[in-house]
Amino acid sequence: GAVVSQHPSRVICKSGTSVKIECRSLDFQATTMFWYRQFPKQSLMLMATSNEGSKATYEQGVEKDKFLINHASLTLSTLTVTSAHPEDSSFYICSAVTRDSYNEQFFGPGTRLTVL
Amino acid sequence: AQSVTQLGSHVSVSEGALVLLRCNYSSSVPPYLFWYVQYPNQGLQLLLKYTSAATLVKGINGFEAEFKKSETSFHLTKPSAHMSDAAEYFCAVSLTGANSKLTFGKGITLSVRP
Q1: How close A8 comes to chain B (CA, Å)?
Q2: How confident is the model at residue A103 (pLDDT cuts 50, 70, 90)?
Q3: How far is residue A6's CA from residue A25's CA, in Å, rounded to a whole number?
Q4: Best mutation site among B33, B99, B103, B110 for testing chain A: the one with the most A CBs within 10 Å?
Q5: CA separation for the pair A95, A90 (Å, rounded)
Q6: How far is B6 from chain A (nearest CA, A)?
Q7: Is the model's pLDDT at A88 over the cut of 80?
Q8: Cα-atom radius of gyration of chain B, to the nearest Å?
Q9: Is the Cβ–Cβ distance between A107 and A34 less than 8 Å?
Q10: How far is A43 from B100, CA to CA, in rounded Å?
Q11: Among A78, A72, A113, A108, which residue's Cα sits nearest to residue A93?
């Protein structure tokens, strides 16, 4: 089956620093990747949609300059949380689709970000 | 626009008992519907999906769901709960398939008592 990995799985950083999270499709080419944010005991909220080779489309209320998304290749998308603050602490999950997987998104295992 | 309502936040059943997790949707067009399971500190795993074919959908781990247009529902059931079913369950809707935006419900925690 299609596998999506995320790195790192956990990261703790100081307030004001930037953190980069990688999302990789291991055995398929991902034409589109999605980035979600999940607060404890809550649902997933879509942050942005990332298409290879083009700018990400952000959901309303998500700060583009705060959450930088780059989809440089068909197997890699990165989310950079710039100048992180404690309120950015959350569980970040990516997912990926291929041209042929119109009935399924493949989810990564998530990254737990803690900002001190 | 589309939305998903999952009533209640926690369901507790005894091992061997019926599992019923409710999901109601709102969609301006015929929807694609999904159920996902999430174990602690992990990503989401697809349980089953409705894509306008059969209204009764069978998924993995003995789960199934029935699409009822008249009730705008897509409830998830399993005849006999197992301890390993304890997890968080999310219902999700999409307008054009899983390759587009998924809108999730708030999720339901399933506990299974021995």
Answers
A1: 13
A2: low
A3: 9
A4: B99
A5: 16
A6: 11
A7: yes
A8: 13
A9: no
A10: 18
A11: A108
Instruction: List the single residue in A with minimal CA-CA distance to B107.
Output: A43
**Tens digit of pLDDT at every position of chain B (114 positions):** 788 999 889 999 999 999 999 999 998 788 899 999 998 878 889 999 998 778 899 999 999 999 999 999 999 999 999 999 999 999 999 887 766 788 999 999 999 999
Chain A with chain B: Cβ pairs closer than 8 A: 61
Rounded to a whole number of angstroms, the distance from the CA of B98 to the nearest CA of chain A is 5
3-state secondary structure of A16: coil
Nearest CA in chain B to A31: B99
Side chain identity, residue A17: T
B65: its two tokens = 């769901």
Instruction: Return the pLDDT at A102.
Output: 60
Q: Do A46 and B41 touch (CB under 8 A)?
A: no
For residue B103, list its beta bridge partners.
B93
Cβ-count burial A1-23 (b if 16+ within 10 Å, e if not): ebebebeeeebebeeeeebebeb
- Collapsing DSSP to helix, strand or coil, A17 comes out as coil
| Closest residue in chain B to residue A4, using alpha carbons only | B43
The amino acid at B25: Y
